[in-house]
Amino acid sequence: MWKTVLRRILIMIPQLLILSLLVFILAKMMPGDPFTGMINPNSDPKEIARLRQEYGLNDPVWVQYTRWLGNMFHGDLGQSYIQKVPVTSLIWDRAVNTFWLSLMTVVLTYVIAIPLGVTAGRHQDEWQDHGVQIFNYITFAVPPFVFYILGIWLFGFTLGWFPISGSVSADVNPGTLAYFWSRIYHLILPSILCALISTTTIVQYLRTGIVDNKVEDYVRTARSKGVPENVVFNKHILRNSLLPIAAFFGNTITGLLSGSMVIESVFSYPGMGKLFLDSIGQRDYTTLTALILLFGVLTLVGNLLSDIIMSIIDPRIRIK
Amino acid sequence: MKKVKLIGTLTLLSGVALTLAACGNSNSNNTSHPNFKESTPKKTIKDGGNVSVAVVADTPFTGIFNDELSTNNTDSEVMQYGDESLFATNNTYKYVKGGAADIKINKDAKTATITINPKVKWSDGQPLVAKDYEYAYEIIANKATHSQRYTSSLANLEGLEEYHDGKSNTISGIEMPDGENGRTVVLHFKEMKPGMTQSGNGYIWEAAAPYHYLKDVPFDKLISSNKIRKNPLFYGPYKVSKVVRGQSVSWVPNEHYYKGKPHLKKITASVITPASVAQSIKSNKFDVTQVSNSQWPNIKGAKGVNFIANIPLAYSYLGFKVGKWDAAKGENVMNKDAKMNNRSLRQAIAYGMNVDQVYKRYSSGLSFRIPTLIPKQFGDYFDKNVKGYTYNIKKGNELLDKAGYKKKGTYRVQPNGKPLTIRLAAMSGSKVQEPIIQNYIQQWKKMGLNVKLTGGRLMEMNSFYDKVQNDSKDVDMFIGAWSLSSEPSPQDLYGAKAPFNYSRFVTKENTDLLNDIDSQKAFNNSYRVKKFHQWQAYMDKEAYVVPVANSYNIYAINNKLTGYSLEPSKSMGGGFPNWYYVGYAK
């Protein structure tokens, strides 16, 4: 198995190279550049032209690409054109924010989805099941941004229970308990909203899994041996029904870092998704390419992790 | 300092273009022009209290707390509490005494003498000295800093170009008669310009940088250093107490402020998305919030706030492409045979725009037609006799008939018999932008003009300027916007050598008028005023560029606050109020 893992990692290198090349070319094809938005009668066009030259924006795309690639292998992802700080420091800043938001969201998603899925599967076609199904239809059908804006309107403005933007209050100092609490407080509303709307797939897989497994032979055997009903469900059925969910758990883990553009935009939460969106709008090439490359790595690693996880929890599956 | 706001122009511009939803003009009857004041009502102030300010922005702020290096509008907004301009102005932006420094222009000696008020201190208690002013020039002109503020106008200062090119280690045109730690600076210019008495003129830098604090940081590390990003120094009424990167900045009183101790205990400026503005105002989440004009109907009923507004130095305009930019020569070259190089055609198109109606319908009166390219706020320079183009299809038709644009079927053809299709480039923006542009196209159709959108739809800002700047052949006319400097000389926007003269028109008359406005004779103000009026009348007649509209810039202010004023004479620069005067009412 480890041989396979190693091979998969090696294949990633050409995959990422192709990805970076595509991204680089596409980014350069967008109209405008980081200096387009700086033009006005009080900036000297000659000076802007000089800066363009100095930053190498006038070189052919392939020259720019190889330069960028060379720097990247030295661990230098460049300086953000807009934020004027090294891209790595910028991404690190945002990644931490996104990580906490995503982690809280994922935990809440499972906490909400698993009981719902189990209930629905166990009480198939009863009122509990119908209730869960209706919940599922709603969360599936409502566009996330509508849901978030409704949430922010109700809990942020009308009831005033939660802050409406940012990741931390301006009044607290890092390192204090108040700071820690402020961070959590800013996470509650976005993560609950985000979790509620992300449960659909998990609930559905779980319900289907339980419904299918309920009539399997091993369940009948267990029951006929006199195993208590709760144990049958929690030990035998649930474990097997969780398999499909485990199948994308690897991506869930790496997804902790990629963030959500929608929720971060609605809440002005400075995370990776928002950074990605902003860097497109502002033509911040260095940040943009670095982010896409990172997202690419995360996806590939996520897939690999998922396969490894599957092979661990289900001994019948072996990576070949 | 005035310049600070300008640099972000395009963003602001697109903002203007977007929010220019609709407007009623004063001579169209029963317009519901909201009656805005520029200041909060006067009340007795007490000390203390916190103020929270919402900074409306799509993206987190960059946080470059330095006038010489910052390029971002949001940055100017979050640092307005401490970032005071060196010079005070009157309400038409002329330099006056009483600011952190006084400035005196001597035309004959070709100098400007700057005298720093001895009470002015940085927020760490160190005095503001002559070297701090020179240092600001060094930051701008030294290539290592990557500052985007170096311009040919600033290079009118003796020796600045040599310093910029690395040929000299000092700027020879900056003289400090009392030494580096003195309070006097004399600037020596190559040439004197009449605009030099006006703030925002671009020839004189209006900010200083704390040399004693920053001198240890190498120029190339300055922009990312913590001394600028996290713990910056200011000499304005408030000083930074904390920066949460991209999100918020807290300010506390600067006990060394030269006018005295400010009233508020703390000011916190936090970024919120434009989508939350209406709700934030209605639920009084913040004490100061900038209003998004497109959400006005939803906001205007809000309780507990005063709405105050000013009219920014900006306008949107319709420009006609009549030439090309010659990059090699660095000048505009007009094409006599260009499709749009026909005065009657341009005038007819201008008469076809029902600007008054459109803005009345779509902007609740927050945007309005403007008659000339010099805004009213410039006082005498504004020519009130120029009326601009009001909607008049009949007149438009007459002009076209007379000029030989005959109708063939639905549409007119060119005088030479070739079909006439006019391609209009316009920026996308708020939801009312599309109906407004489509409405103009319908009006033009009524006159038999076939106007098509470049690319078939409204363009995103970057694509728009890409096409307009590069004189794409898909653009015959375009609707853009400018935010102006507080020195009204139109040379940078409409001169023969101005790259921003996107119409690319060059006429002898225009060049002469613009040169007269900036000539030595124009040190005589009444001469300058006269030339400004002549230029506006000329531009109105020729219609290479037709002014379209401007809109109110509105703030919702907690009605317990007083002393908040957007009048230029009460400003600290950059169009922001002087926060020293702001406080809670007793």
From TrEMBL, chain A:
InterPro entries: BPD_transp_1_N, MetI-like, MetI-like_sf. Its main location: membrane. Residues 95-306 form the ABC transmembrane type-1 domain. Pfam families: BPD_transp_1, BPD_transp_1_N. The chain crosses the membrane at residues 9-27, 99-122, 134-164, 184-206, 242-267, 287-313. One of its GO terms (cellular component) is plasma membrane. This is Oligopeptide ABC transporter permease component OppB. It comes from Lactobacillus johnsonii (strain FI9785). The gene is oppB.
